[in-house]
Amino acid sequence: MKISFCCSNTQPEPWLEGLRAALPLADISLWQPGAALADYAVVWAPPQAFFDEQSALNGIFNIGAGVDALLKLRLPAQAVVVRLDDAGMAVQMAEYVCQAVIRHFRQLDTYAQEIRAGTWTFHKPRQRADFPVGIMGLGVLGTRVAQALGGFEFPVLGWSRTPKAQDSIKCFHGAAQLPDFLRQSRMLVNLLPLTPETVNILNRSNLQHLQAGGYVINVARGAHLVDEDLLALIDSGHLAGATLDVFRTEPLPPDHPFWQQPNITLTPHTSARTLREDSIAQIAGKLAALARGEKIAGVVDVLHGY
Ligand code: NAP
Ligand code: GLV
User: Fold this and answer.
1) Which of 66, 138, 223, 252 could form a disulfide with 160 if both were Cys (CB 3.0 to 4.6 A apart)?
2) Whether residue 99 is found in the same domain as residue 239
3) Nearest residue CA, atom 1 of ligand 2?
4) Contact at 8 Å (CB) between 229 and 203?
5) CA of 170 to the centre of ligand 2 (A)
6) For the chain, what is the domain count?
7) Which listed ligand is nearest to 271 at the C-alpha?
8) 52, 65: one domain
9) What is the predicted pLDDT for the residue at 9?
10) For ligand 2, which residues put their CB under 6 angstroms from it?
11) Number of neighbours of residue 160 by Cβ within 10 angstroms
12) Is 74 a catalytic residue?
């Protein structure tokens, strides 16, 4: 089995060493233009030239959960596209979203500012029941986040494309139920894949359905959010603020107004990082399962875009 590795934003050597250790019988190499045809590819943000040349691939392993960038390229029609499913990302996402929800709910930024100013003040404790958390996307990551928030006894709602029934999550699905889901949410967590159906979904007309004092946590993709709509709803006072991990342009340009908005907390696309060892173990396990003719998780439905 021949595997070609082509990742634009990572040091290739540790990946190549790890893949070779996990798959000792495979012939694994870093892609160079003109390389021999491979059976499988391990990629992140490869150039179109990679797929133009690698026309015989049976499978493409994306070393991330989101495949929006990959699906913009022309891919060999016969290749299955496989994304990371969890591989250590779900617990990181649960940590990140819980800290953002709790930081806002417990007014920890306000306390930190007051302490820095030398002020010792108490604020009236707020009621969890007044802070229902709506999660857009109840997939691998959204479900784990929902469970973690449930552990802190927040009321949790979820919205997905197809119907779900999950204990302790109030489930909504489809475009028709989106306004109801939003109206019953005060804090909104976005964990949708970026697809033609979900691009710009965090826009003024949707976000204004959130309860007054709403709070947005975007950990999926920057192109889900209409930046100027978020800023306008914070300026108007309808939204209390946001925690944003992903942006239309990354790194966030120095002149972007998000940098200056005090009620927006920014992080540099770090909420759930690809973990090399976990990812290699998952890819090696899936290649072995495919060789045995078994079904694997994480196969992307190219028509739906996730
Ligand atoms: P997933 O398992 O594929 O889950 C996607 C969820 O979104 C599913 O519940 C799906 O509904 C729902 N969905 C898709 N299209 C929808 C639509 N049009 N309307 C309503 N719901 C829709 O994906 P995942 O592994 O949880 O990852 C989610 C996203 O997180 C990734 O695509 C990526 O963009 C982002 N991510 C970000 C980071 C980061 O560091 N910031 C890290 C990893 C991933 P069904 O269940 O009905 O199919
Ligand atoms: C990161 O954003 C991923 O999609 O894995």
Assistant:
1) 138
2) yes
3) 64
4) yes
5) 26
6) 2
7) 1
8) yes
9) 85
10) 64-66, 274
11) 21
12) no
